[in-house]
Write a structure and sequence with these properties.
CATH class of the largest domain: Alpha Beta
Keywords: Transferase
Family: Belongs to the aspartate/ornithine carbamoyltransferase superfamily.
Strand content: 15-25%
CATH architecture of the largest domain: 3-Layer(aba) Sandwich
Helix content: 40-55%
InterPro entries: Asp/Orn_carbamoyltranf_P-bd, Asp/Orn_carbamoylTrfase, Asp/Orn_carbamoylTrfase_sf, Asp_carbamoyltransf_Asp/Orn-bd, Orn/put_carbamltrans
Pfam family, one: OTCace
Low-confidence stretches: none
Distance between the termini: 5 Å
Function: Reversibly catalyzes the transfer of the carbamoyl group from carbamoyl phosphate (CP) to the N(epsilon) atom of ornithine (ORN) to produce L-citrulline.
Order of helices and strands: HEHEHEHEHEHEHEHEHHEHH
CATH topology of the largest domain: Rossmann fold
Number of helices: 12
Shape: globular
Oligomer: single chain
Number of strands: 9
Strand order of the largest sheet: 7-6-5-8-9
Radius of gyration: 19 Å
């Protein structure tokens, strides 16, 4: 069974085909109005969501299918072993998208599901976001050849899927990540990344910006902790350490890379508010592309359902 749990699952040809199909769907949506006729998408949520929820529901419904959102904690997934619940659930849908806290739960879902499982975000990976990021870069530059992306922020789940995707697509990726989320660290992935020669750690933001086409930042505090009382000391520590790495006019130093952010944005923290709406920003294009590339992903998984 084909699943998307990390973005390590796709080879270069598959990744390119999904991205190119996504651009085609974006430009000619009417040709895909019946592509998922009567196909059902179960959407399981432990984590809050704007883009994942809206883009998947809109995407499959625009292609003639339907979505069933389900809150994990209000369902029996919260009180029964995953293997039993997903065996039942997968008999009532054609694809499952799960936005969960722990990657281990995604692996359990995929192991026992009779339909493809898509990771809509977990503590280790966010492959749908990375797919949209790669689509946006390809759409902007028309190629991945001789393109450099710089990620500035916390080493988190998005970074892991970006690393996997960039290695496959052939992009250079510079990481300016003073803080690592321990739950996100994947030692095997990082060893592979460093051996590839295309993934580089850079300590200096100014140095990285001199040789980049895109600069990408993300929240310094995971959304579920942003207003949590018990997390305020860690939040303040992160802000103090990361403020010198804020993307702003001064830190850009005259460089003019395209600016990316996976949202939700916290202006005045990881990015200066003025840059969000600047001519260099492709943030909203990047966010919109979540729906288009997920349409393409759904079509790919449905077409290859049952294959190993």
């Amino acid at each position: 069974m084909n699943h998307l749990l990390t973005l390590k699952e796709f080879d270069k040809d598959t990744l390119f085909s999904i991205i190119r199909k996504a651009i085609e769907i974006k430009n000619k949506p009417e040709q895909y109005y019946h592509a998922c006729e009567r196909k059902g998408l179960l959407m399981l949520f432990q984590k809050t969501s704007t883009r994942t929820n809206l883009s998947f529901q809109s995407g499959i419904q625009q292609m003639g299918g339907y979505a069933v959102p389900m809150d994990w904690n209000s369902s029996n997934f919260s009180i029964s072993p995953i293997q039993y619940e997903v065996r039942y659930a997968s008999r009532n849908c054609d694809v499952i998208m799960a936005r969960l806290t722990n990657h281990s739960d995604l692996l359990e879902l995929a192991k026992y599901s009779d339909v493809p499982v898509i990771n809509g975000c977990c503590d280790q990976y966010h492959p749908c976001q990375a797919l949209a990021d790669l689509m946006t870069i390809y759409e902007t530059k028309g190629t991945f050849s001789d393109v450099t992306l710089t990620y500035v922020g916390i080493h988190n789940n998005v970074v892991n899927s970006l690393i996997a995707g960039c290695m496959t697509a052939g992009l250079r990726l510079q990481l300016v990540t003073p803080i690592i989320n321990d739950a996100s660290w994947d030692e095997e992935l990082m060893q592979t990344a460093y051996r590839s020669g295309s993934i580089l750690n850079v300590e200096s933001l100014s140095e990285a910006l001199l040789r980049t086409d895109f600069v990408y930042t993300d929240t310094w505090v995971d959304m579920e902790y942003f207003h949590a009382d018990h997390y305020q000391d860690e939040k303040n520590r992160r802000i103090q350490l990361m403020m010198p790495f804020q993307i702003n006019k001064e830190s850009l130093g005259g460089c003019t890379p395209f600016i990316m952010h996976d949202m939700p944005v916290h202006p005045g923290f990881e990015i200066e508010e003025e840059l969000i709406e600047s001519d260099q920003s492709i943030i909203y294009q990047q966010a919109e592309n979540r729906m288009h590339v997920q349409k393409s992903l759904l079509l790919y998984l449905l077409e290859h359902q049952g294959e190993e």
